[in-house]
TrEMBL record:
<dbReference type="Pfam" id="PF00501">
    <property type="entry name" value="AMP-binding"/>
</dbReference>
<dbReference type="Pfam" id="PF13193">
    <property type="entry name" value="AMP-binding_C"/>
</dbReference>
<dbReference type="InterPro" id="IPR050237">
    <property type="entry name" value="ATP-dep_AMP-bd_enzyme"/>
</dbReference>
<dbReference type="InterPro" id="IPR045851">
    <property type="entry name" value="AMP-bd_C_sf"/>
</dbReference>
<protein>
    <submittedName>
        <fullName>AMP-binding protein</fullName>
    </submittedName>
</protein>
<feature type="domain" description="AMP-binding enzyme C-terminal">
    <location>
        <begin position="407"/>
        <end position="481"/>
    </location>
</feature>
<dbReference type="InterPro" id="IPR042099">
    <property type="entry name" value="ANL_N_sf"/>
</dbReference>
<dbReference type="InterPro" id="IPR000873">
    <property type="entry name" value="AMP-dep_synth/lig_dom"/>
</dbReference>
<feature type="domain" description="AMP-dependent synthetase/ligase">
    <location>
        <begin position="24"/>
        <end position="350"/>
    </location>
</feature>
<dbReference type="InterPro" id="IPR025110">
    <property type="entry name" value="AMP-bd_C"/>
</dbReference>
Length: 495
């Protein structure tokens, strides 16, 4: 048996810090991170710089008491400092937990209390992080965090939920293999990966694993559709992950059909249901074989996926189980429902990492044989493809009938006078709940009328799904990750 210089078996998995040191030695001058700041600057960091700077910051964090097994909360917006802090945390054998910073102070304090991390790094620590560059470069022992990362998931109501992945922070090639490889596609490596989403979100933090594979990350400080396309062209971006809202805004750019998107090898669409017209638009922009739609959750219960050419044969689907993921659609008494009947989606995967919650959030409902549900509703077709309709908590019961906001939103967004829409259920004496559409107009000076929206929607949906009321706003309040808090919207309108 051969051993490496540290005395470990040569075929033993490398810790994430050891993998970074290896890259710094083998490719010291290659750019690993490029940051696209709002002020127009675009600082770049080589693998040697990332290794050195994260070691300096790790020593500074150790002076603040961080030891192996601790949690470090990272309340930083997308920035080089956030990436360095995550790398430094792993170098100490601790667990990084990115934290939403775009929430009210009271909610941030509640999340911080739930995490109970050894250190919280926020905007006030940016200068301190930068100052560590002047410190000596320490010789750190190789350490492996027992828990690779945590992700926060909480709204304005309910208990904060911090989801921690119970697997060690070691380099796993399978995690960094391009997702499109599941369809037998080989893409050039290293990839240039655009990160348009906030890194407090699972889809934004996950690309850090690709840094250890030698891929280059191009991180946006904040999502902007025009800037995304500019960066794709200038840095020949090969892949990115985006929400439907992001893709909608990119596709709506007036010159998008004339822009150069040929560097894109593949993209992932996730986080929400993709409207059919938007999928067709992107198929026209880059081709169906380059689009992958996925359905999963931060708890990593399992994953479904399909490529754009499959989607054309199963329009509206979020795919079949990937790898060993199994699916069930269950009724209210836990019974397996017939094909085509809407019920609660349950997933099971033996190879998915176990998760735990930090805080008081209850675990997801599960079956005795290991299937679990994140609260989404959907159905299966005869070919085993899953169709997601909406979250159970968002379903509107109006006049005794069930209405799924995502379906109504998908119908309304095609109106040429609508740039964004959210549908909620509001208290109503006659209907129990009425379907209420909140729209942001394409032209603020000439927004569509309620009757225009109702007539347009009536041509696409059953009458009971048509919004009873329509509200025009300047902009839909979305988080940096483009998500909406429906509960807050309903509360602000009287419940």
């Amino acid at each position: 048996m051969t051993v490496d210089q540290g005395g470990a078996p040569a075929d033993a998995p490398l810790s994430l810090p050891a993998k970074l040191r290896q890259l710094a030695a083998e490719r010291p001058d290659d750019i690993g991170l490029r940051f696209i700041a709002l002020d127009g600057s675009e600082p770049a960091f080589s693998y040697a710089e990332l290794n050195r700077r994260s070691s300096q910051l790790a020593a500074a964090l150790a002076e603040r008491g961080v030891v192996s097994g601790d949690v470090v909360a990272l309340g930083l917006r997308n920035s080089p400092q956030l990436v360095l802090a995550a790398l430094a945390t792993w170098k100490l054998g601790a667990t990084p937990v990115p934290v939403r910073w775009d929430v009210p102070d009271w909610e941030l304090e509640r999340v911080k209390e739930a995490i109970n991390g050894r250190v919280f790094l926020g905007a006030a620590d940016l200068g301190w992080i930068d100052e560590t560059e002047n410190a000596p470069v320490p010789d750190l022992p190789d350490q492996v965090s027992p828990r690779v990362q945590g992700i926060c998931s909480s709204g304005s109501t309910g208990n904060p939920k911090i989801i921690v992945m119970e697997r060690p922070a070691v380099y796993r090639e399978v995690v960094t293999t391009p997702f499109i490889a599941a369809w037998g596609v080989t893409v050039p490596r290293p990839e240039t990966i655009l990160v348009p989403a906030p890194m407090y979100h699972a889809n934004g933090f996950a690309p850090l694993q690709h840094l250890f594979a030698g891929d280059q990350l191009v991180v946006l400080e904040k999502f902007d559709a025009a800037r995304v396309v500019d960066v794709i062209e200038r840095y020949r971006v090969s892949t990115f992950t985006a929400t439907p809202t992001m893709l909608q805004r990119i596709a709506a750019l007036p010159d998008i059909d004339d822009r150069d998107l040929t560097s894109i090898q593949w993209i992932i669409q996730g986080a929400a249901l993709m409207p059919r017209t938007l999928m067709h638009r992107w198929i026209g922009l880059i081709g169906p074989e380059k689009i992958v739609s996925i359905y999963g959750m931060t708890e990593a219960l399992g994953l479904t996926a399909l490529r754009g050419d499959e989607w054309l044969e199963h329009q509206g689907s979020v795919g079949r189980g990937l790898g060993d993921t199994e699916m069930r659609v269950l009724g209210p008494d836990g019974e397996v429902l017939p094909l085509g009947e809407i019920g609660d989606i349950y997933l099971r995967s033996a190879t998915s990492p176990a998760y735990t919650y930090v805080g008081d959030a209850p675990r997801l409902p599960s079956t005795p044989d290991g299937f679990a549900s994140a609260g989404d509703l959907g159905y299966l077709d005869a070919d085993g493809y899953l169709y997601l309709v909406d979250r159970r908590v968002d379903m509107i019961v109006t006049g005794g009938a069930n209405v799924f906001p995502a379906e109504v939103e998908a119908a309304i967004i095609d109106h040429p006078g609508v740039s964004d829409v959210v549908v909620v259920g509001l208290r109503d004496e006659s209907w129990g709940r009425r379907v209420h559409a909140i729209i942001a107009p394409t032209d603020a000076a000439a927004p569509p009328t309620t009757e225009e929206i109702r007539t347009f929607t009536r041509s696409r949906l059953a009458a009971y799904k048509v919004p009873k009321t329509v509200e025009v706003v300047d902009a839909i309040p979305r988080s940096e990750a483009t998500k909406v808090n429906r509960g807050a919207l309903v509360k602000a309108r009287g419940g």
